[in-house]
Amino acid sequence: MAKPIQMIKKVELSEEEKKKQSLESLLFEVAENKDSLLDTLYLLQELHNSGILEAINSLVKTKEEVAKIAVGQMTREPVTNIINNAMAAGGVLTELDPEMTKKLMGSVKKGLEKAEQGLQSNSKVGILDLMKALKDPDLNRVIGFGLNLLKGVGEGLKE
């Protein structure tokens, strides 16, 4: 029968052996990832040749100053106004019916096309033309839409 183990010897690697194992592991990984490493080296060389790598290195070295400038620019009144306006517009857009918005945008597109045709024809519009236009159902519809839109905007401005 075998003797029971009385003492466990822990194998301690010397610094030289640790470095050798580390180097072997690194060489194995390099061999396994040869293509991606070559691509990375090519990319770095291109960034170096174009001067972008130097700019990035300078940016990293002066990161605190760059951060101060960026924060300073972001807190300027025009930028905060843009952010506030975008948030307000986003809030309004969430309340609109998407189908109505789609229909309105399609109508605006068609209206712009008609307006372009009118500019190309270079015809003049007289008072009688305006009176006749009121009888056109399409124009009557848009005039009614516009008047109601203006009424709603006016009501909104009271609040």
Write the layout of secondary structure elements.
Blueprint: H1 15-32, H2 34-50, H3 52-61, H4 63-74, H5 77-95, H6 98-121, H7 127-133, H8 137-158
Describe this protein's structure:
The structure is a single chain. The protein has a domain at 126-158. The protein has eight helices and no strands. It has helices at 15-32, 34-50, 52-61, 63-74, 77-95, 98-121, 127-133, 137-158. It is elongated, with a radius of gyration of 36 Å. It starts with 14 loop residues before the first helix and ends with a helix. The mean pLDDT is 90. InterPro entries: DUF1641 (IPR012440).
- The pLDDT mean sits at 90
Work out the helicity level: over 70%
Low-confidence regions: none
The secondary-structure element order is HHHHHHHH
Q: What's the helix count?
A: 8
Taken as a percent bin, the fraction of beta residues is under 5%
The radius of gyration is: 36 Å
Kindly state the number of beta strands.
0
**Per the principal axes of the C-alpha atoms, what is the gross shape?**
elongated
Please identify the structural class as seen in this structure. Answer: mainly alpha
In quaternary terms, these chains amount to single chain
Largest sheet: none
Distance between the termini: 97 Å
Keywords:
159 residues, DUF1641 domain-containing protein, mainly alpha, DUF1641, 81% helix
Summarize the model shown.
The chain is an all-alpha fold and 159 residues long. The chain has helices at 15-32, 34-50, 52-61, 63-74, 77-95, 98-121, 127-133, 137-158.
